[in-house]
Amino acid sequence: SGELYCSLPNPRNVHFESINMKNVLHWSAPEGTGDGVLYKVKYSVYGVGKWIRKPECRNINRTWCDLSSETSDYEEQYYASVKAFLDGMCSEWMETTRFNPLTDTKIDPPMVSVSSTEKSISITLTAPEKWKRSPEGESISLLQVYPGLQYNVSVLNKKTKKRWLFSISNNTLVVPWLEPGTAYCVSAQIHVPTPLLHSVFSKEYCIATLKDK
Amino acid sequence: SVTEIRSGFTAIKANIQARDPIRTLSILSHPHSLHKVQSSDRCCITHHLFNFYVDKVFKHCKTEDSYVNRKISSIANSFLSVKKKLRQCHEQNKCMCGQESTEKFKQILANYKELNVTSAAMKSLGELDILLDWMEKSA
Questions:
Q1: Are residues A143 and A82 in the same domain?
Q2: Which of A26, A156, B36, B45 to pair with B54, CA 20 to 30 A apart?
């Protein structure tokens, strides 16, 4: 279809927001435009010639578009682009920078489960899963995506406020020689040495060691 | 080391990639991704690629930004030290070049020659994360 006269201000800040490789394109409305602006979106694989339209994001009035499915191969890199329309006018296509799902995603903290005996607590950590198309889809742990993935674990004695920090590669940790009948709080973070990525610390999971018999 | 290369590149990635307006050509990853290279050929391809970056790429990557230039030369120095180690493997015949790696490297050089030297060098530099992602995944 012939392009309209493109004098509409451009969409701004077109960028990917990615968490666990759920890759969503975001942008801000063109400056000075109120309601009624519609958008269309296209994307391309870096090194491959063609732009591909995203039908589900054609003539939309929201300012985001989920491109997780289209950018799920993290061995590739991508560009995406947005165009705005209002009252018969249009903007230029505005592109993202090159998006590399492997290095440009954010990672959620691990899931933490704890159990205790009289003098120790056992901690089991589970890395988040990579985004998947449907709940029935194959689950891929981020551990498979980042083989060098490690966990930083914080253990706090609630009574003495003493804190220990551990850095482990496997997903279980037993903390021995603790005080019976005492509350301990555990929090964990994911750390990928290269490419350098780390999650925030998880919320605290507190448990008490058993009382002395 | 590779981690130093990665952190150096991360610091200038957006700047370098913004200087490469060509979306339709990749030096390293098309038409065939590095990730399709068989494990037996990985050492040889890595050896070739480090030579490629040292001999053909870094010298053509001057910018008007002194910070970026410093980062590029520190990356180049890290490449030189890794390249020496790879040369030892090559000399001890632990880095055999099969048919596939020879073909793959020919393709990379062909992609490189499709552009003028400065554009090709800047594009290759902007693709360092493709090389690093592949090296770290297959480490």
A1: no
A2: B36
Q: Is A98 on the interface with B (CB under 8 A)?
A: yes
Architecture of domain B2-137: Up-down Bundle (1.20)
B115 touches chain A (CB under 8 A): no
B9's tokens: 């590149």
Asked if the peptide bond before residue A109 counts as cis, ω within 30 degrees of 0, the response is: no
Closest residue in A to B22 (Cα) is A47
pLDDT tens-digit map of B76-110: 999 998 888 877 776 766 777 888 888 899 999 99
pLDDT in tens, A13-55: 999 999 999 999 999 999 999 889 999 999 999 999 799 999 9
Domain of residue A62, residue span: 12-102
- Chain A nearest CA to B3, separation (Å): 6
Domain co-membership, A134 together with A96: no
- CA A45 to chain B, closest CA, distance in angstroms equals 8
CATH number of the structural domain spanning residue A196: 2.60.40.10
| Residues in B touching A76 (Cβ below 8 Å) | 29, 33
ipTM of model: 0.90
Cα dist from A209 to A122, A164, A185, B13, whole Å: 10, 16, 11, 49
Q: Do both A192 and A129 map to the same domain?
A: yes
Q: For A20-159, where are the E strands, in sequence order?
A: 22-28, 38-45, 52-60, 64-66, 78-86, 89-90, 94-95, 111-116, 121-126, 150-157
Q: pTM here?
A: 0.92
Residues of A in contact with B26 (CB under 8 A): 46-47
